[in-house]
From TrEMBL:
Presence of keyword Transmembrane: yes
Domain of life: Bacteria
InterPro entries: K_chnl_dom
Domain Potassium channel: 64-130
UniProt key word Hydrolase: no
Protein's recorded name: Potassium channel domain-containing protein
Cross-referenced Pfam families: Ion_trans_2
Transmembrane segments: 7-29, 49-68, 111-129
The species this protein was found in: Lysobacter niastensis
Length: 144
């Protein structure tokens, strides 16, 4: 049952992450990040917006996990569930709050989900950074 709950939750997180990646990339593509501004502030703002969308997506995903934990009756307060979920999602593993034996396998499943989704966010952000760098370099005649 833990694996089924975990896989369904992971699928929901993947769907959200995929949608937010599309949103972030569309935002990036629609902005003129060509190095027209010698100070680079336009590029900086656009890159920060992309990063913010991706980070908020990861926060939303750990909140999804926290809601699942609350539905399962693991935690009385959403705040505690979110904290525990954040520790799992980020793979910190403090261990100061432990789930019941019945659902404890969900913690490692969330950690796997977090590692994957944070990795996806990192890959997207690096792709955008590399693209912005290349566009800036080309717009400045090979000089950055």
């Amino acid at each position: 049952m833990n694996i089924l709950i975990g896989l369904v939750t992971m699928a929901a997180c993947l769907a959200l992450q995929s949608w937010l990646i599309v949103v972030a990339l569309r935002y990036y593509v629609r902005r003129n990040v060509l190095g027209d501004d010698p100070s680079g502030w336009v590029t900086f703002r656009v890159l920060n917006a992309v990063m913010a969308v991706l980070v908020l997506g990861n926060c939303a995903q750990l909140t999804i996990w926290a809601i699942v934990f609350r539905i399962l009756g693991e935690f009385d307060a959403l705040e505690v569930a979110v904290y525990h979920s954040a520790v799992n999602f980020a793979s910190l593993g403090y261990g100061d709050i432990v789930m019941s034996d019945r659902f404890r396998l969900l913690g490692p499943l969330e950690a796997v989900n977090g590692v994957l989704m944070i990795g996806v966010s990192t890959a997207v952000l690096m792709n955008v950074l590399q693209d912005a760098y290349q566009k800036t370099k080309a717009a400045r005649g090979g000089q950055v």
